[in-house]
Amino acid sequence: MNGLSGTAAALGDVVVVGGGAAGLMTALVAGRRGLRVSVLEHGPEVGRKILISGGGRCNFTNTDMRAECFLSSNRHFVKSAISRYRPEHFLAMLGRHGIAWHEKKLGQLFCDRSAADIVQMLLDECRAAHVRILTGVRVTGVSKADHFTVQTTAGALHARSLVLASGGLSIPKLGASGFAYDVARQFGLPVITPEPALVPLVFGQEEDAWLRTLAGVSLPVRAACGKTAFEEALLFTHRGLSGPALLQISSFWREGQPLSLDLVPGQDMGAALARLKKSGVRTQAPATLGRWVPQRLAQALSARYVPEKLHGRPLAEWADKDVAALARHISHMGLTPTGTEGFAKAEVTRGGVDTRALSSRTMEATSVPGLYVVGEAVDVTGWLGGYNFHWAWASGHAAGEAV
Ligand code: FDA
Q1: Residue 48 Cβ < 6 Å to ligand 1
Q2: What φ, ψ does residue 196 adopt, rounded to 5°?
Q3: Is the pTM of this model over 0.90?
Q4: 352 and 317 both lie in a single domain
């Protein structure tokens, strides 16, 4: 629906800005309670990120739901919402709508058919709860006296509660905006600098030239940054590094920090190469490393890390220290990114409205009664694997029950 009806100026209960996962969940929960709820979405349709997520099948939650799987300046903040709204609650809603799902790996749950099923389910739930959804409407200003007034390109709305559900800055071409941050600041709430997360990382000229030659190569690795590490697939691309392990670690990476990649996770490469040398193996480095990593990578690693004096010589003829040095490069490959591919390629935004200004039980701003912030707009970032949608559902549910 486009534009406001003649009753728009009447005092409603709740205005939700943003028709994404968190906004729709907030709206349907509040609507079920009999509240008069309007959702304002500036894009042409709601739920656009849901539609493109998880390769079109939406990784909508994860069975391993723990506070440790979220980044935030306050790591306890998510506990209340995720303990009250669990994966099984979302599964129960899918069940009521006959939506089939499956686990792919690591507790990650996807739709069998299409992410569009999730959007349709949320729309059906909103319709049943008499939620009014307005698309293609731009908010031009927000003010508060005894209630909130939201000025829009289609007229003004008045409501007791205002829910900021406009997400973060990732993927501007899908409608991302800094709206929630601007309104939060307007009402005196602090905002932690938003930055791209779950994002491919890029490298300086010298490393970039080397990495580009490997574009398309993928392998399981252990990617570490400081004390945090993830074991998953790594993908070399034309621009740098991506793949689940790299995306995960990108959320923890800060400028200037090195990454350490173990290209043979779970293996003691030093011992394995030493054993091979002892056995008198006649293969040279590329063929030797090719036992563990894809051949193109084995070639590139040999060219980069094997000293010239050993080129063309079988491992059996190497000094022990040279074998150990090669093993170290393979198990602790050090790379220092120069940056990320930015918000255009980031799956999510790290940072956002500071959790210290919000109630973890209701998502309401403690200093501004009636103002709520949910979903990605909040300084809560989930791991890859369904955690970000779960945060959208759980925070939306918490706010929907409280507004
Ligand atoms: P979301 O961004 O979804 O919604 C905000 C809405 O507000 C948008 O519709 C936007 O147009 C609207 N809006 C913005 N500014 C506005 C304004 N000024 N006025 C009105 N409306 C405004 N997560 C996961 O758990 N599993 C997955 O499989 C994936 N996959 C995935 C793939 C890709 C390519 C991306 C980019 C992201 C994912 N994610 C994901 C992350 C997930 O999509 C994200 O965390 C949630 O969509 C966040 O939900 P929100 O509702 O908070 O924001």
Answers
A1: yes
A2: -65, 140
A3: yes
A4: no
